[in-house]
Amino acid sequence: MMDRGGSKMAEGRPVADAAWGAGAARRSHGMGRAGVLLIVCLFTLPFMALLFGGRAGALAVWQNAAKLTAMGGGLLNVSRQSAAGADELFGGLLSPGSDRRACLSRYQSPHYYKHSPYAPSPHLLRKLRDYEARHSRCGPGTPPYARSVDHLRSGGSSSTEDAECNYVVWIPYNGLGNRMLSLLSTFLYALLTDRVLLVHSTDDFTGLFCEPFPGANATWVLPRDFPVADMSWLGVGSNQSYGNLLDGKKIANDPAKATAQSVPPYVYLHLAHDLRRSDRLFYCNDDQLVLAKVNWLLVQNDFYFVPALYAMAEFEGELRRLFPAKESVAHLLGRYLFHPSNSVWGMITRYYHTYMAQAEERIGVQIRMFSWATIPVDDMYTQIMACSRQEHILPDIDGDEANTKTTAARSSAKSKAILIASLQADYYDRIKSTYYEHAAKGGGMVGVFQPSHEERQIMGQRPHNQKALAEIYLLSFSDVLLTTGASTFGYMSSSLAGLRPTMLMIPEDGKVPEPPCVRAVSMEPCFHMTPDVECQGKAVNKEELSRHVNECEDVGKGIKWIKGIKLFD
């Protein structure tokens, strides 16, 4: 489910809002009749609107949620996340003092996450504060940035003045989940190499996130007058790609021969799924020593490449100091780097408070059907429900149709909200019908919700990216997660959530896999590239890469090393 897409828009369709409203009324007997009436009305309105409004567009759902939240006067915000005491700075991960109104999510999101399993290491905190100072000193609008751009524009070699500030420019590519994991990896690379991260912000990426870095001159957006034109068209065949420069003998991957004056003013790093063998030399130690002499690196990538950095002697020791728990990398850096813009945060919080906040447990289900691994919808639904029974994810249903629990029994059972994130509506419809036609075993209210379903994936449209980002964050607020193996959308959700998800296995040969799913042993995303890099000098640690690959395969994250197939969504 990445960038979303298609002409059909979905509705968020609550199944049990009226029941939840009644439960809320029972719990609030001290509020008086007016308060009870208000709550019943608030929880009945979404159901009535959807009943008589037909298949409303997804945008209408976000807007309806906004109106209902405003009408509630704060009453809808009655959930565990509202409790005081959340650490707004994530243990020092974020710097204090940013403008709260400019980026509401930065300080509000800690109140929504249910899990924060890892505190940042003191070394990571120092590294982040050093980076922030460097970004403020070297970012757009500063004299060092202006000098570096002038040298780049003139085509001349780097000067000793340029050595003060080196840059890595990230170029967005592929779907939103891919982009977030790629950007996170590139930021870590900037931390490791003392570079300043700048983002080539395309129209469909603009407005999704707040500026992540505090202080003056701290924008991460690359100015539009940057002298390298048409960066979005750079690719594996570009003359300035590192692989082509090596093949054409225009740069030597010999650290003893490379100087700031001998290397080009910029090098394009093509690290996307279709990279060639010469491009893979980026992951070699000697090549990193050469690239360190280049003032400007331009990076295009569409997967998570952090595991490959661990396999490099140049970075391994520093990475272990930064992240004593290896599975915490994407979790901590994701929470540091990504803060939805106010417009997207409004979509997230309105939907959450209208449909999910009242539940005592929230279950996120992310379903992605890949074009290279499809099975019929009936079979996919069978796989989902078999996984749920195996891992006890969705509430069991009561087989006794005549069994009706007393009011006391229902009120004592835990209420649950199931959020479905999928391009298709079929799975939502079937799961919703299950809990409409059958009571949950042991009682308790069950609501099933889907913010959007767009049927097919379309790239390059900001509204689709906004909704996709909203759903990634709604999933990340879950207590329990079921995601699809090999899905970058699922990777990003579980990393932000701080959860090891249950992962649906990828079908093979058009058949439902057995077992249907497994529990991940790590919240870290997988590295979607074969570990076959041949290096000169100090070689890449193939044992480290192989360990990661085997772990991903063993836990059923669905990685298949098939050349020429895009294993991304």
UniProtKB/TrEMBL annotation:
What InterPro entries does its record include? Answer: XG_FTase
A cellular component term, taken from the record's GO annotations = Golgi cisterna membrane
Q: Which UniProt keywords apply?
A: Cell wall biogenesis/degradation, Glycoprotein, Glycosyltransferase, Golgi apparatus, Membrane, Transferase, Transmembrane, Transmembrane helix
The GO biological-process annotations, alphabetized, read as: cell wall biogenesis; cell wall organization; xyloglucan biosynthetic process
UniProt cross-references to Gene3D superfamilies, sorted A to Z? 3.40.50.11340
Q: Which residue ranges traverse the bilayer?
A: 36-62
Q: Does the keyword Disulfide bond apply?
A: no
The record gives the membrane topology as: Single-pass type II membrane protein
EC number(s) on record? 2.4.1.-
Q: Does the keyword Glycosyltransferase apply?
A: yes
Against Pfam families, the record matches this protein to: XG_FTase
Q: Which molecular function GO terms apply here? A: galactoside 2-alpha-L-fucosyltransferase activity
Kindly list the places in or outside the cell where this protein is found, as annotated in its UniProt entry. Answer: Golgi apparatus, Golgi stack membrane
What does the UniProt record say this protein does?
A: May be involved in cell wall biosynthesis.
Q: Which family does it belong to?
A: Belongs to the glycosyltransferase 37 family.
Recorded protein name is Fucosyltransferase
The species this protein belongs to is Triticum aestivum (Wheat)
Q: Which gene encodes it?
A: LOC123161317
